[in-house]
Amino acid sequence: MISYNPKATQFLNLKPGANLFDLLLPPGDLPAVRRIWEANNSYYFEKSLRGYSLGITLSSIEKVSSFERLLVFLITDLSAIKEIESKLKEKEHLALIGEMAAGIAHEIRNPLASISGSVQFLRRELALQPELRSLMDIIVKESDRLSAFIEEFLNYSRQSPLEKADVDLGALVDEVTAMLARNLKEVRFIRKFDPGNMIRADAKKIKQLLWNLLNNAVKAQKEKGGIEIAIFQQKGAPCLSIRDFGVGMDRAELEKIFTPFYSKFAFGIGLGMNIVKRIVDEHGFTMEIQSEKNQGTEVVVCFKKG
């Protein structure tokens, strides 16, 4: 005979006659259950089930009511505890990355700038054959790419308190798109908003958020075509939509999008969207992402009213 209380029925989504042993115990644990039954012992284990983290204690109890012996599952929802543990580990991880980043900035970024500057000077001053000029162009381009990697890494590791102020979202969008457009001749930023959309936020971090999202959209379209940027009102608060028509993502790729060091693009280290999520979470904003393979991606961030 197997019975369970209403809370367990609701929590585990149990059907009438469901077998808790099949649901909670892998086959390899059955010998341990037999030992518990024979020795009146307890057995604790943890299990992920239907999106929950569960702590399960299995005990043998003698002579309860008319039963000679019972096996009792005591199930505790550990989801909140596991989430706290995960956040603590992430903070420890970020602290370690911060220490590493300081060393990287000192040991790599400054010499890299010297290399790039020296090559650009030589390229300008020397009469070079086309092949040699092309090699110098590669050195400068790769130096700039590595410098961008380091900067993104530093942005990921650097945590600073919010400095909130009233910010014109549309003006920030115009500023960031102007910076991007300088080096992108085949990309059009299609604006669908009116001026005067004020939000309460840290302007520097919102610019970083916009840069990362728009840069991803540019990469997804291979640096050509139109990218739509809209600002609209939803439930009395301004929302930002950035939509590209590039490579898009399937469900598996979308699930990994916030994973540090995961990138769909050859030129990236996979920290941009993680930084975006952190900025959104710090401000208490919300974000939704819709994407379809080979059809494009739309990211919508909804801000609080100023």
Outline the fold blueprint.
Blueprint: H1 6-11, H2 20-24, H3 30-39, E1 42-49, E2 52-64, E3 67-77, H4 79-125, H5 130-157, E4 164-168, H6 169-181, E5 187-192, E6 198-202, H7 203-220, E7 225-234, E8 237-244, H8 251-255, H9 272-283, E9 286-292, E10 296-302
Parallel strand pairs: 5-7
Antiparallel strand pairs: 1-2, 2-3, 4-6, 7-8, 8-10, 9-10
Model description:
By secondary structure, the chain is of the alpha+beta class. The protein folds into 3 domains: 6-77, no CATH class; 88-157; 164-302, 2-Layer Sandwich (Heat Shock Protein 90). The protein has helices at residues 6-11, 20-24, 30-39, 79-125, 130-157, 169-181, 203-220, 251-255, 272-283, and strands spanning 42-49, 52-64, 67-77, 164-168, 187-192, 198-202, 225-234, 237-244, 286-292, 296-302. Helix 4 packs antiparallel against helix 5 and helix 7 runs antiparallel to helix 9 (272-283). The longest helix is centred in the middle third of the chain and has 47 residues, at 79-125. The radius of gyration is 27 Å and the shape is elongated. The mean pLDDT is 80.
Task: Quickly list its features.
26% strand; 306 residues; Heat Shock Protein 90; 5-stranded mixed β-sheet; alpha+beta; 3-stranded antiparallel β-sheet
How would you briefly describe this protein structure?
This protein is an alpha+beta fold and about 300 residues long.
